[in-house]
Amino acid sequence: MKPKLRDIKLQPSMVRGQQGFVLSDPLEISQKTLFMPIYMSFLLSLLDGTRDIGTIKTGFELRIGRIIALSDLELLISRLDEALFLENENFFQRYQKAIDNYRSSKVRSSSLAGSSYPKDPNSLRENIQRYLDKVSDASHQEIDKVVALISPHIDYQRGATIYSKVWSKARKSLEQTELIVILGTDHVDGKGSITLTRQNYETPLGVIATDGDVVNELAGELGDDAFANELNHRGEHSIELALVWLQFILGDKTCPVVPILCGSFFKFIENGESPLKAKQVITTINFIKRLYLTKRILIIAAADLAHMGPVFGDSIPMDIGERAKMASDDEKLMEILCRGDVELFYSLIQKEKDRRHICGVPPIYITLASMPEAEGTSVGYAICPASPDYTSLVSICGILYKSGKE
Fold first, then answer.
1. Tell me: the pLDDT tens digits for 286-332?
2. 137 pLDDT band (50/70/90 cuts)?
3. Distances from the Cα of 128 to the Cα of 117, 342, 380, angstroms
4. Other C-beta atoms within 10 Å of 158: how many?
């Protein structure tokens, strides 16, 4: 047996005074978690499907300088298998069952109702209205001819002010919109994949229809891989959090959507490559460009900005000085975003080697590359806590792009 670890989630943690990582399943096929001491984390890199247990034992001992009993290693691998953290027949059977259930369902059900926001539709509407009422009257001045926007995908408790400013200003433009393309960050995929779904999205405010014809047309150009990671839609929060606001602002108006998850560009950044070299990325951009010629469309980039501090793997806590630098760097970034300069945006991210962990890079990049000539207006910016002691932070923004053409 040559065990191979899946793409799983590792969250820094401390258990009984011991530093390490909590392993969990980002697809939520398994509900199990495992704690692994930090000195054992190197062992995970050895589980790549090319080594048997004996070779893994030897490699670990030579690198770490600690003896691990073969029985302990076998027990660990058995526990990883039971938790569905290994790529093997056990996992593939459970995965197939999960994707079959997802596709056979009438809708993609809300994954956040009752936790991130109220499950009761009346309570949800009241919450959103309260958020809107808290922003000044000037913030409600609507912008006409909006062709694209950047909205956060952080939780409403922290991002309510920015959500309110973005969506209240887009209201007038939404009245004329015929199709909405929503690009969300895929927090599970690390390979730059473009992932579609034919499922309609459901929230407590109702079902918002996915335009199946448009999805099928794009899928025909992307190929079979367009649905390879479709299960990622089931638990991904980025699209869902934006759609709730879209539904509230639309009110009684209906407008179909095309939900697209965009995987991380880290491999392009690390290799010094342009995302345009990826067939899926350039195909998606060109497809959206053609949509503009036939429909009144709006692109939504559901994207947050920087994620910094120990919670995100940084060694330096975010004190007052680091927070000020974060805000200054974000200001420069937003100036570029408002200019709609996609190549300057990406060159900045590449120059930084994405050290600020901007999880919204893929949806923002595809939005800027796809939209027609437009000018952006920043409507809000905020730095939000990501840890109780405020040593880890997340920044968010709202930008609306107005068409410069009649």
1. 999 999 999 999 999 999 999 999 988 888 999 999 999 999 999 99
2. low
3. 10, 32, 17
4. 17
Of 150, 178, 330, give the one whose Cα is nearest residue 245: 150
The tokens for 224 are 């079979």
**Token digits for 4?**
């191979």
Taking only the tens place, the pLDDT of each residue in 147-191 is 999 999 999 999 999 999 999 999 988 988 999 999 999 999 988
Q: What is the rounded CA–CA span in Å between residue 81 and residue 86?
A: 6
Radius of gyration of the chain (CA): 22
Output the pLDDT for position 260.
98
Q: Give alpha helix (H) positions in 23-142.
A: 41-46, 53-64, 70-82, 89-104, 121-134
Nearest to 238 by CA among 298, 151, 326: 151
pLDDT tens for 263-280 read 999 999 988 999 999 999
Q: Taking the alpha carbons of 223, 226, 231, 234 in that order, is the dihedral positive or negative?
A: negative
Q: What is the domain partition of the chain in residue ranges?
A: 9-101, 108-403
CATH code, residues 108-403:
3.40.830.10
pLDDT digits (tens, 9 = 90+) for 352-380: 988 999 999 999 999 999 988 888 999 99
| CA 16 – CA 54 distance, rounded (Å) | 30
Distance CA 70, CA 50 (A): 18
Strands 307-308 and 257-262: unpaired
User: Which residues touch 165 (CB under 8 Å, ≥6 apart)?
Assistant: 135, 139, 379, 380, 398
b/e sequence 7-25, b meaning 16+ C-beta within 10 Å:
ebeeeeeeeeeeebbebbb
CA distance 230 to 228: 6
DSSP 3-state assignment of 381? strand
Rounded to whole angstroms, the Cα distance separating 156 from 356 reads: 22
Round to whole Å and give the CA distance between 371 and 403: 9
Both tokens of residue 51?
């080594």
Nearest residue to 149 via CA among 302, 335, 289: 302
Q: What single-letter amino acid sits at 314? A: D
Going by the DSSP 8-state scheme, the letter that residue 115 receives in this structure is: T
CA 49, distance to chain mean position in Å, is 28
pLDDT of residue 221: 97
> Based on the number of CB atoms within 10 Å of its own CB, is 102 exposed (0-12), middle (13-18) or buried (19 or more)?
middle
Helix, strand or coil, per DSSP, at residue 322: helix
